[in-house]
Amino acid sequence: MPTYVYACKDCGHGFEIYQSFDEDALNVCPQCQGTLRKQFNTVGVVFKGSGFYKTDSRSAGSEQTSSPAPAKTDTSSPSAAQN
Questions:
Q1: Torsions phi, psi of 82, nearest 5?
Q2: Partners of 14 in the β-ladder
Q3: Is 6 within 8 Å of 15 (Cβ atoms)?
Q4: 0.85 surpassed by pTM
Q5: What is the pLDDT of residues 49-71, one digit of tens each?
Q6: Which burial class, exposed, middle or buried, applies to 35 when counting CB atoms under 10 A from its CB (0-12, 13-18, 19+)?
Q7: Which domains does the chain have, with CATH numbers?
Q8: Buried b / exposed e along 42-75 (16+ C-beta atoms within 10 A)
Q9: CB 8 within 8 A of CB 39
């Protein structure tokens, strides 16, 4: 069951409550009998890992928008220049 957060418009009392999707929203404050309002929080979704968008949102045959950077060669040592 989801957790909903309510706050009273009159006294400022806030609380959380577990409610089913089928239940009606609360509208009376349990402390002062004032008007309640439902507060909305951020969604608890976290996308972890690299490449989520690339691997899950595109088809396998689509073209990539960015290409990897070309490999750099080390020319600072004399032996690297002779190879």
A1: -80, -20
A2: 7
A3: yes
A4: no
A5: 766 665 555 555 555 555 555 56
A6: exposed
A7: 1-41 (2.20.28)
A8: eeeeeeeeeeeeeeeeeeeeeeeeeeeeeeeeee
A9: no
